[in-house]
Amino acid sequence: MKALSAALLVMTMSGLQQSVVMVANALSPRDITTISRRNLLLRGSAAVAAASGVLGKAQPAAAATTTTEEQDVYFGVGCYWHIQHEFVEAERSILNRGDSQLTSKTGYAGGNAVGKDGKVCYHNLQSMADYGRLGHGEVVGMTIPADQVVPFTKVYFSLFNPRTKDRVDPADRGGEYRSLLGIPGGTGHPSYPAMEAAAQEAGFKLVPGKGNDPDTLGKQIVFVHDTAKFPFYQAEVYHQYHNDFQSPPYGKAYNNLAIKAFEEGRLQSTGCPDKV
What we know:
Oligomer: single chain
Number of helices: 8
Structural class: alpha/beta
Largest sheet: 7 strands, mixed
Radius of gyration: 18 Å
Number of strands: 7
Strand content: 5-15%
């Protein structure tokens, strides 16, 4: 059954990508620089909406265990497509992880509510558990050794525009694209002082998040959450290992990591409208 679902994923993800490209090609160069990722994706996804399925349930990331000394964390700044790619590269370069060891996933966090049956979903034509309406932001969650939280935090701050100190995709506006991060214990995490120093060095201020926090564009602040109170919810499979609009296409080898992760059980069906 999972093999069949993976095969369907290949076809439906390809259809969505083609639809997005068709919409993008119809736009003028000026439109491309100003249109938000949300609107472009919704235009493309409307063409394949009939393929959307409703399976499973959105789950927070698995709890860290003391035997491995690994922790579940997340980082968000603007659209999560580009951020996932950069953290995949960080997992490879800092932790020497191979394709089957990658843990970086796109997802949602920072909201005070969830939808029916615990769902948190991307904007969809069914208006099901819309993450924006529920107060969540786009993030990338990962499982990393506790002593690597600070190095990954430094990677995070390198992803902002160094000139403006803002996200690299300012056309996407709203609390869904705010800057936020989640660590066990929040500001009480043992590495928090070092993380705060890294933020200050990069020109940012860490602020305790209350949930449903507003956009941070132009403010140079990052909301900090305790992952126990504000857990990570995996995004739909079609949002994983996706090309973005900030860089050239990452290539099929990268895009196909979504299929591999789904087949290996590292990605799950979320219960949201998806392509699996």
